[in-house]
């Protein structure tokens, strides 16, 4: 009995030593990777070692490895966590499903006699597998994009549009969050697809989605597509297929992506120039306005169009074009007809805010009775931050540099409603910031207006913003200053004997 116990202790000591070694090994992984990232191979090795050295089941080994790496603050968001691949039934090195399918696709690619039925099933499995971003990322690091791209070129002559569409969709799924996989030189092929398959709206839709996804945080791809006349081609598609709702939505999303300065790897983007190009290319701004009218009763499409439209209003003359088109009138009607729809309300007010950059258009918005509709929207959706933020921002824009507009605003219930908005969203910095701007812009023109707001004890609310939200600090101080309230103005920079200390 004593001998058995001794033998057990001996085994325990061996396991303890192995476990200490494993802990040290995990620590070493974290030490050598200062960014706290590890490869899939490193993670797999740790799981396999748990199975082989500590006789754990695949599930236990996976859970233990996850626990150990997490204690070292290692980022595991891109790690595939599938216990099945560590099963004893899988002999040889660990191969994850997304990599396995990619390898099978490579074998198909080398075969001149392709079984299209088997290939279609395989690509469908690939899309299903890559719905998980970690698995998609792993496939991307194993040349999945290059393989799919070669397949697209090979299938272009096959006359099997359905299979081609599935591969285009697979590229789209793979590129989500991985736009850098596509090289700028590849953009020419996808532009050609828009020309070659003009009659196939399914392929057109998938291709537009690929183009859009490949441009997210990728300025090089944006430039390549724009140089390849993507804007002109997209406008042509909008005119030809204006009744194809999904295609219209996809093109609107594409315009939003093209006009975003979202690539941190470049010193600056060309968003402003792209906005100008979209607005002027083939009368793009007028086309978007026509589509807004066309879909005035379809909230789903209208939301996408009203997301795109403000992005194009980057010049005074563009706002004037909307005014000349009669845009103020029909958008006010849309606004009034959709008062129960919070997303449409916030989107419409954002459009009006951008239009208000033009002083002539701004006055037209106020005289068209839009202020009353704004207050109705705020009253109905006072509990919804996006509507409150957009409403306050629009009021602030309408009152800016316009004493006459401020006077009209002060004849309404806006002061009382603003206080209600600020009380309803004390934790929303964005709402509070917009509210402070609105107060400041309205009271700036007439000191008598300040008394109305002070009687509503708005100073306490603004001081709370000052104490709680650093991102609204300057706006809150400006509001207090123009309200005539006590405010401490700090002199951040001043000269002292030849130096400028902060």
UniProtKB/TrEMBL annotation:
PANTHER family: ARMADILLO REPEAT-CONTAINING PROTEIN 6 (PTHR22895). It comes from Octopus vulgaris (Common octopus). One of its GO terms (biological process) is hematopoietic progenitor cell differentiation. This is Armadillo repeat-containing 6. InterPro entries: ARM-like, ARM-type_fold, Armadillo. Keywords: Repeat. SUPFAM superfamilies: ARM repeat (SSF48371). It comes from the Eukaryota.
């Amino acid at each position: 009995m004593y001998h058995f116990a001794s033998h057990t202790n001996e085994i325990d000591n061996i396991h303890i030593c192995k476990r200490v070694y494993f802990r040290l090994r995990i620590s070493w992984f974290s030490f050598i990777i200062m960014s706290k990232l590890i490869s899939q191979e490193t993670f797999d090795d740790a799981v396999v070692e748990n199975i082989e050295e500590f006789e754990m089941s695949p599930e236990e080994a996976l859970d233990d490895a996850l626990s150990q790496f997490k204690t070292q603050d290692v980022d595991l968001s891109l790690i595939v966590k599938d216990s099945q691949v560590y099963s004893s039934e899988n002999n040889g090195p660990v191969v994850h499903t997304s990599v396995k399918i990619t390898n099978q696709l490579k074998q198909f690619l080398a075969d001149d006699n392709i079984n299209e039925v088997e290939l279609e099933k395989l690509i469908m499995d690939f899309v299903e597998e890559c719905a998980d971003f970690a698995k998609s990322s792993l496939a991307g690091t194993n040349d999945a994009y290059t393989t799919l791209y070669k397949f697209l070129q090979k299938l272009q002559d096959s006359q099997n549009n359905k299979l081609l569409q599935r591969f285009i969709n697979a590229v789209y799924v793979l590129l989500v969050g991985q736009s850098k996989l596509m090289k700028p030189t590849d953009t020419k092929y996808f532009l050609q697809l828009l020309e070659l398959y003009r009659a196939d709206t399914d392929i057109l839709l998938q291709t537009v989605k690929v183009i859009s996804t490949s441009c997210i945080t990728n300025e090089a791809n944006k430039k390549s597509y724009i140089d390849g006349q993507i804007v002109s081609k997209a406008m042509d598609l909008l005119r030809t297929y204006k009744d194809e709702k999904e295609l219209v939505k996809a093109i609107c999303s594409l315009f939003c992506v093209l006009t975003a300065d979202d690539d941190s790897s470049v010193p600056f983007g060309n968003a402003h120039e792209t906005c100008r190009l979209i607005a002027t290319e083939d009368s793009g701004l007028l086309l978007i306005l026509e589509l807004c009218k066309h879909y005035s009763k379809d909230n789903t499409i209208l939301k996408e169009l009203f997301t795109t439209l403000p992005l194009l209003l980057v010049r005074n003359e563009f706002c004037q074009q909307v005014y000349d088109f009669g845009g103020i009138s029909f958008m006010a009607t849309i606004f009034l007809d959709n008062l129960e729809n919070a997303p449409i309300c916030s989107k419409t007010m954002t459009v009006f805010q951008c239009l208000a950059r033009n002083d002539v258009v701004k006055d037209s918005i106020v005289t068209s009775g839009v202020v009353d509709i704004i207050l109705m929207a705020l009253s109905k959706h006072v509990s919804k931050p996006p509507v409150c933020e957009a409403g306050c921002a629009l009021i602030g824009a309408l009152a800016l540099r316009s004493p006459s507009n401020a006077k009209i605003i002060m004849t309404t219930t806006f002061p009382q409603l603003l206080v209600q908005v600020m009380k309803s969203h004390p934790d929303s910095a964005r709402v509070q910031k917009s509210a402070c701007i609105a107060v400041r812009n309205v009271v700036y023109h007439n000191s008598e207006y300040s008394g109305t707001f002070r009687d509503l004890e708005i100073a306490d609310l603004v001081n709370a913003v000052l104490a709680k939200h650093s991102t609204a600090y300057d706006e809150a101080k400006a509001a207090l200053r123009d309200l005539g309230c006590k405010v401490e103005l700090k002199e951040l920079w001043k000269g002292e004997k030849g130096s400028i200390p902060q």
